[in-house]
Design brief:
The protein is of the alpha/beta class. About 45% of the residues lie in helices and about 10% in strands.
Length: about 325
């Protein structure tokens, strides 16, 4: 494991030097995977800028990052679902907070789903899922990419290559019954990132696409963004009742069969340092299923046709299980 040395020691010569005192901006950092990624970068001595919708929570995460060893820790509060002009303004504030340049951008903002396609008749839910996971993510990443490319052209030869790390989902690799609109939105963002990688390949800016499977988030009373049949039942939601929100917080999800969030965050940071193009990270049997879909699609879809109806029913009942072998509740993503 890469660890940041004490402050009294010189800059490390290991791979950690790629993050040590570098400017890292993480969205979705007020909870879940984004928060864990901010902590992972802080432990390596990065200069961290954390972003989310809740000012108080972002400030708490920034303070924790400072305690963990971040060279600096600041927060920029904004909503990824804002307009393009609002996202551009938020990007300006984040780059300013980072001292004018961002070395690593991690877009971890997102929300999952627990609702089958036929049960999801609320158009607002579909729009919100795409706005958060695709349209907002794409718009913000465009703004970041433009500024990174411009910054690279001003830098000296041999300086560190800036990284754009987009968190998508293994649902982009494997069909996700009970999360069909979510899978479509994350797939759209993944397709954008992979195309962007090729478009700016000659600029020196690197793009990493991350496909995590189910992660143990929503612990310790934290809310997860989960879209259901309608906006009122989704959490958290501006129209959701206090009763609905407290019910979700009081009944935290099982961690069985789900990846530890700090482990996933560490792998994401490591993959960004290694200049990989993508990272697919999921527990078994989901990981095996991704290979099956790729190399033996007929067999994979036959298995999914058996699993799918049951999983869709569970999603409509308020839970999502990843295979017929797992009866506990699992949620993909953040």
């Amino acid at each position: 494991m890469i660890r940041r040395p004490p402050r009294s020691t010189p800059k490390p010569s290991s791979a950690a030097s790629d993050v040590y005192k570098r400017q890292v901006w993480i969205t979705g950092a007020s909870q879940g995977l984004g928060e864990a990624t901010a902590r992972a970068c802080a432990r390596l001595g990065a200069r961290v800028v954390v972003s989310g919708r809740r000012a108080e929570r972002c400030a708490e995460v920034a303070e924790e990052c400072a305690r963990l060893g971040a060279a600096s820790a600041k927060c920029v509060v904004f909503d990824v679902c804002g307009t393009r002009s609002e996202l551009s303004e938020a990007c300006e504030r984040a780059f300013e907070a980072a001292g004018g340049t961002v070395d690593v951008f991690v877009n971890a903002a997102g929300g999952s789903q627990a609702c089958s396609a036929l049960a999801g008749d609320d158009e607002d839910v579909d729009k919100a899922l795409f706005q958060l996971n695709a349209i907002g993510a794409i718009s913000l990443t465009k703004e970041v990419a433009k500024r990174m490319v411009a910054a690279v052209r001003r830098r000296k030869a041999g300086s560190i290559a800036p990284k754009i790390v987009g968190v998508c989902s293994v649902a982009s690799k494997v069909p996700a019954p009970g999360q069909s609109v979510y899978a479509a939105a994350k797939s759209a963002y993944a397709a954008f990132l992979n195309s962007l990688r090729s478009e700016i390949a000659n600029t020196g800016v690197k793009v990493v696409c991350v496909y995590p499977g189910p992660i143990a988030t929503g612990m310790n009373g934290q809310e997860r963004v989960i879209f259901r049949k309608n906006m009122a039942d989704s959490t958290p939601s501006p129209s959701a009742s206090k009763t609905a929100i407290s019910r979700t917080a009081a009944r935290p999800p099982s961690t069985k069969g789900r990846m530890n969030v700090d482990y996933v965050a560490a792998r994401i940071v490591r993959s960004a340092l290694a200049d990989v193009d993508e990272l697919v990270l999921a527990p078994q049997p989901i990981m095996a299923l991704t290979y099956c879909v790729r190399f033996f699609p007929t067999l994979a879809y036959a298995a999914l046709d058996v699993i799918g109806p049951k999983r869709a029913r569970r999603a409509d009942a308020g839970a999502v299980s990843y295979t017929h072998l797992r009866a506990h509740e699992t949620e993909a993503d953040l």
